[in-house]
Design brief:
Helix content: 40-55%
Mean pLDDT: 95
Radius of gyration: 19 Å
Number of domains: 2
Low-confidence stretches: none
CATH class of the largest domain: Alpha Beta
CATH topology of the largest domain: inorganic pyrophosphatase (n-terminal core)
Bound molecules: manganese (II) ion
Strand order of the largest sheet: 2-1-3-4-5
CATH architecture of the largest domain: Alpha-Beta Complex
Shape: globular
Largest sheet: 5 strands, parallel
Strand content: 15-25%
CATH superfamily of the largest domain: inorganic pyrophosphatase (n-terminal core)
Structural class: alpha/beta
Number of helices: 11
């Protein structure tokens, strides 16, 4: 029997880092493990693997007899095709929706911090397990990516300490590579833009169907100016494809540390100004600090709870 570490479909660098490293951790503690990438890893994963010459070796599918560990995700709905009894552990950092519970046999650690990779790093530190160069690199840049270079307000002292520990392990891990990775991941083809935005997922909160896209870009204002038309038509396409009431894009300037909130309809503009106290005018609003999509969702979950308990 193998314990397979996996995450959500099309995982980002944090998800991949957790899979790779936690699987290594389990093997080194005597539990036979592998990892399974469902869908395709985000482009940023390829960028980091290319720079550091890391080869991923994902299992093709999760077999019926495999035990499952879910990292950087806790949504059991994603694993409906699997026997819940086979899910043995969850390691995550996303807010749990009101009323969501987990079967008691699952070992759950969900801490609201900058990256799930921090939690995995802490397992190595706590158990004093040797970490490979590849796992250390993936965890480090996973934390850096998810916390926007430790600038986002979800960044915890634990994220900072995990980064320091990883930096101390291998001289290849340097801050100077961060800018290179951020600039490379900002080079997005028009044909890929909608996919990169991850805007297809509708959440229902406050009685509304809400789609929130995301763009993490170096020099985001320039980027938006050069793609105004494309972004506008993506918003309209998604509105047509889904029964969406509210739709906007949370654009983060990953080098300069602020957001641009973008929408193209008055309903959404009113919603954003009412619930987030933004000042969106003509579909655009610039924040003075970084706000992550998961923070926006957390705020909506909180407002939704208050709304339901009225
Ligand atoms: Mn994450």
């Amino acid at each position: 029997m193998t314990r397979v570490v996996t995450s959500y479909i099309n995982p980002d660098l944090d998800g991949i880092a957790c899979m790779y490293a936690y699987s290594e951790f389990l093997n080194k503690t005597g539990i036979k493990s592998s990892y399974c990438i469902i869908g395709n890893a985000k482009e940023e994963v390829n960028i980091v693997c290319d720079i550091f010459n890391i080869k991923l070796n994902s299992k093709k599918t999760i077999d019926e007899e495999d035990e499952i560990v879910i990292v950087d995700n806790h949504d059991l709905n994603n694993f409906k095709n699997h026997d819940t009894n086979k899910i043995v552990e969850i390691i995550d950092h996303h807010t749990v929706y009101n009323g969501v519970t987990f079967p008691s046999h699952i070992k759950v650690q969900i801490d609201i911090i900058g990256a799930a990779a921090t939690i995995v790093t802490e397992r190595f530190i706590k158990e004093n397990i040797d970490i490979s160069k590849e796992a250390a690199i993936l965890l480090y840049y996973g934390i850096i990516s998810n916390s926007i270079n430790l600038k986002s307000s979800v960044t915890d002292t634990r994220d900072i300490n995990a980064c320091k520990w990883l930096e101390s392990k291998y001289s290849e891990i340097t801050k100077s590579k961060i800018k290179e990775i951020f600039i490379k991941k900002s080079q997005i083809e028009d044909s890929n833009l909608r996919k990169v935005m991850e805007i297809e997922h509708t959440i229902n909160l406050l009685g509304k169907n809400i789609n929130i896209g995301v763009l993490e870009i170096a020099n985001v204002e320039e980027f938006i100016k050069s793609r105004t038309k494309q972004i506008d038509s993506i918003l309209n396409e998604v509105k047509n494809n889904y029964n969406t009431d509210i739709i906007f894009i949370n654009c983060i300037d990953i080098l300069n540390g602020y957001n641009i909130i973008l929408c193209n309809d008055k309903n959404t503009e009113k919603f954003l100004n009412e619930f987030f106290k933004f000042n969106v005018q003509n579909g655009i609003y610039k924040t003075d600090k970084i706000i992550l999509r998961k923070e926006l969702i957390r705020k909506l979950i909180k407002l939704d709870n208050e709304y339901q308990n009225r």
